[in-house]
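Schema walk-through. Below, the input block comes first and the output block second. Nothing else is stored per chain. Lengths vary across the set, and this one has 179 residues.
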Amino acid sequence: MIEDLIILCKRGDKKAQRQLYEKFSGKLFRLCYRYLRHQMEAEDVLVNGFVKIFQNINNLEFRSTEATEAWMKKIMVNECLMSLRKKRALSYIPEEAEAGKEAATVPVDDLEVEEIYAQILKLPHGYRTVFNLYVIEGYNHKEISLQLGISENTSKSQLHKARLMLQELLVKEGISYDK
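--- output ---
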């Protein structure tokens, strides 16, 4: 099904483009919103991302639905990062480690996804961006440093601080965790 849509999209079929958009726009919107936190901004980035997807779809070699989705997600992440850079919203707290603080392990099975998602959205842009790239998108610190123009140590520090802040936010909301 997806392979057929891709073939038709490569031929410029508007109906197939619409179907591809409808199939993936919800998931990709949530990805954009996770980075940007503002609905209108996330919608703008989503539209720009789909324009890039359709402009570059001829370069896509269909292997599987999962690989196609990963390709689209990568485009959307890049669009989100470009939007954040344009706004200069990516600010990073200095690398000095906070002495004596360790992030607790939060058992994800015990938490509602929406509760975690709501708390991630409260993280500052820099923390949230590194957290999303590392934890959710699966990038390593070297890849993140190249994407964001920061050192690997800054990426590691931002992730550590994001986890600490997320833990604090979860505790504040009364969401239990185990140390």
